[in-house]
Amino acid sequence: MSGDYLLPRIATSEDPLRLAVLISGGGSGLKALLRHQSNGRRNHVTSLVISDVESAGGLKHASDSSVEHLSIPLPGGMKGIERRLEHERRIMEALASHDIEMVVLSGYMRILTPSFVSNWKGRLVNIHPSLLPKFPGAHAQRDAIDSGAKETGCTVHFVDEGVDTGAIIQQKEVPILPGDTVETLTERIKREEHELYPKVLDDISSGRVSV
Ligand code: GRF
């Protein structure tokens, strides 16, 4: 495996790893993580939630749990890479001011630039609704159904400079049933994601993951 992943410190429940969760939508994964963190002594805590979408429903889960949350939309008056870099500069400023140690992408729909990734590599994770390397990209469930596969799943992986190409940490299989639609399959995958992601974060923050 590539040697340029720098893992976070091994944390304790007295001094938990400070996570920022980045979302763009409904945030069911965020909700599951917050429930997991409040249900026991964990070596990680959600210290900040950031959404790039001001109306993202997931921000309510943060406020319901009294977790600090911000919406940081793409800045106006700029275009292209300049706009993406300024957006990420604002995000990195928020991460620094909240002493964030690890970034958890949970339904965050933007692709991060190599400049952002290189700053966080090994401390930046994502969950994807397929068994990577199968079905990368934004339409994983539709692509899995269209392929005729009988099984798909979800993958937690470190983020690298590519799209859905980083080192795989853990996966869980999910069956594709006859008559499945994108919606029914998405819901079945999410049920597994909500178990898998918090457990992988337990493993990372306790030093049980290597790359
Ligand atoms: C999840 O299915 C995840 O795999 C994908 O985005 C979805 C997020 O859903 N990256 P939610 O916003 O947490 O409900």
Describe the structure.
It is a single chain. With 211 residues, the protein is of the alpha/beta class. The protein has two domains: 15-120, Rossmann fold (3-Layer(aba) Sandwich); 127-211, Rossmann fold. It is built from six helices and seven strands, in the order βαβαβαβαβαββα. It has a seven-stranded mixed sheet with strand order 3-2-1-4-5-6-7. α1 (28-38) links the parallel β1 (17-23) and β2 (44-51). The longest helix is centred in the last third of the chain and has 24 residues, at 182-205. The mean pLDDT is 97. 5-O-phosphono-beta-D-ribofuranosylamine binds next to α1, β5 and α6.
Write a brief caption for the model:
This protein has six helices and seven strands.
Write down the Rg.
17 Å
CATH topology of the largest domain: Rossmann fold
* DSSP summary: helix tally: 6
Order of helices and strands: EHEHEHEHEHEEH
Q: How many beta-strand segments?
A: 7
How many structural domains are formed by the residues?
2
Please state roughly what percent of the residues sit in beta strands, choosing from under 5%, 5-15%, 15-25%, 25-35%, 35-45% or over 45%: 15-25%
Question: What integer is the average pLDDT?
Answer: 97
Bound heterogens, unique: 5-O-phosphono-beta-D-ribofuranosylamine
Uncertain segments of ≥5 residues (pLDDT<50)?
Answer: none
Summarize this structure as a short list of keywords or feature phrases.
6 helices, 2 domains, 211 residues, 7-stranded mixed beta sheet, binds 5-O-phosphono-beta-D-ribofuranosylamine, 7 strands, alpha/beta, Rossmann fold
